Every structure is written in C-alpha cells, then in structure tokens.
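Quick log. Single chain, no ligands specified.
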Amino acid sequence: MQLPAQAFVEVRPSALPPGRLVRVRGCWSLLVDLQLRHGQQSRLILQGPHQGHLVAVGPGVPECTTIAAEFGWFPSLDWNALATDQTPYSGALVLTSDGPVLIGSDPDDGDQYAFRMDGTHVEKYYASPAHTRFERWSVELSLDERPFESLGLLLAVDLGTLKGTAGA
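-> predicted structure:
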C-alpha cells in the first residue's frame, strides 16, 4: 500500500502533543500524557520486540517521522480476529463503554495503563475480562477533515507474533 509523502514530516517527539504517532528506530509509537520518568513524556511502542511497553521520550531524541498536521489516524479492527481471554493486555486494543483504549505496560514494574486514541491516560481503567480485547488491529491514515475514511494502512499490530509490520 502506498501513502502520500505529504502525510509525513520530521519533528522532534518532545515537541509534539500526546496522541501523535511517531516512528522511532523503525517502530511506530503513540505519544501519551503519562510521565513515568523525571517528568518526561512517554510513548507506547506499537511495533517490534518492545511492543506494548511504555518508554520515556528523552530530550535528546532526534527528529523522527510523524504524521503531518492535516492528517490523522484511527484504529481499525478485523472482526474475524476477536481476542480471547488469553490475549495479553499490553499492546492490545480494548473496547470499553467509553470507546477503544490501548494498553501499555511499564517494563520496569509491569504496571499497566490505558490510553485513549488522543494519548490521554484513562485514570480509572479497570481491566475487565468482559472487555473485548483485540490482539490484531491496524492503524489507518486519514485526513483530519474525513477522520474515518482511510487513505491506507499505516501499520498492522499482531500480538500473536510480538511484532507489528510497518506499512510506511
């Protein structure tokens, strides 16, 4: 799948707000508003061997690829890939009564956190077995003016393989 080059720019992650996707060291991450270490912004890694982990965005992180301001993204589901009780929470897309959330874990202590698609931390998230969890989901690129009309696949997440595949 090809995507328009105009949809991407290079920016320092520390200059971006929560909810933006950034590609650091070849893996896409979601910037989130949780501060794990020394007041630094964090990112939830969506691909690769550290998929589902939360890591701090240090001030020295160089410019990286992100989605340009007039573009956006949304999660997409494969209804044939419904998760089971065996699906790990970390890295999963979970449907809740308040909408979808992404789950990330602190690799140092194993604590898990939930985030809305805009990167905001869900303070009182309760991991319920009743919530539908997806181990396979994707991120679709869109225009801000047409938020759920896909311009193409940006990345696919598959917790079963413990690594996502990049589309861009």
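Residues 5-166 form one domain.
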